[in-house]
Amino acid sequence: MKFNEPLDENELNKLKNINLPEDYISFLRISNGAEFFIDDYRGSQGLLKLYSLNEVIDGKNFYISNLNSNNEYPIGILLDNADLIINEIALKSKENYLRLSDGSKIFKYSFQEWLDKFIIAQGNEFWLLDSSYDA
Question: For the residues of the chain, what is the DSSP string, one character each?
Answer without folding.
Answer: -EEPPPPPHHHHGGGGGS---HHHHHHHHH-SSEEES--TTTTPPPSEEEPPHHHHHHHHHHHHHHH--SSEEEEEEETTTEEEEEEHHHHHTTS--EEETTSS-B-SS-HHHHHHHHHHTTTS-GGGGGSPP--
